[in-house]
Amino acid sequence: MELSETAAILEFLRSAEKLKNVTRSAWTSAGTPESVAEHTWRLCLMALVLSERVGPVDVGRLLKMCIVHDLGEAISGDVPAIHQDPAVPKSDAERRDLLTLVKPLPADITEEIVALWDEYEHAASAEAKIAKALDKLETIMQHNQGRNPADFDYRFNLTYGLEYTGAHEVIAAVRAVLDAETEERARHTPPP
How far is residue 69's CA from residue 90's CA, in Å, rounded to a whole number? Predict the structure, then answer.
C-alpha cells in the first residue's frame, strides 16, 4: 500500500471517529446518551450471535452492512425516527454525507462501502433485510434497557420498524419479547 493511500485511509478513519461522539435518542443503562458507535457495536454483536439462526446469510456481508449503515451520520448527526419528517427522506441526506465521508478513500473501497450502504438502505438482499430488522430491534432494546428521561415515549417503539421485523420467525420472536418489555415500560411511564 502506498503512503498516499495509507494517509487517505487514515483520514477516513479519523473522520469516522466522530460517530463515537454523535448521540442518538437512546440512553445507556448508566444514563448517558448512547453514541452511534455504541449502537453500531451492539448491532454487529446481534448480527453475529443471531446470524446462524436467521437462515442462510453471508455473515461477513451482514456484518459489513451493519458497520456501514450509519456512517453518514458522522457528518450531520442522527435524526431520531420520532423526529423525522416523512416529506424529507433521511436517507437522501445521509447518503450525501456518506459520499462526503468516503471521498478520501481509494475508489475500490469507496465503491464497496457505498454499494453496501445502498443495499442496506433498499433492503435489497437477505443480509440487508436482516441488518435492517436488527437495527430496529437494537434501537428498541436500548430504549427498553436505557435510563431514559421521564418523558420518554416508549409507545412509539410499538410500531417502530414493524415493516422489517415480521418476516423471519427468529426476528419476530425477538420483536415479541421486546414489545412486551416496551409495553411494561410504557405502562409505568406517563404519556409524553
Answer: 13
Residues 6+ apart with CB under 8 A from 44: 63, 66, 67
Q: Assess if residue 17 is contained within a domain.
A: yes
d(CA 4, CA 176) in angstroms, rounded, equals 50
pLDDT 10s digits, 141-155: 999 999 988 888 899
**CB neighbour list of residue 86: distance below 8 Å, 6 or more residues apart:** none
CATH number reported for the structural domain that contains residue 137 in this entry? 1.10.3210.10
Task: Tell me how far apart the alpha carbons of residues 111 and 192 are, in angstroms, rounded to a whole number.
Answer: 43
Distance CA 88, CA 28 (A): 29
Contact yes or no for 2/92 (Cβ under 8 A): no
**Residue 102 DSSP one-character state:** H
Mean pLDDT on 119-146:
96
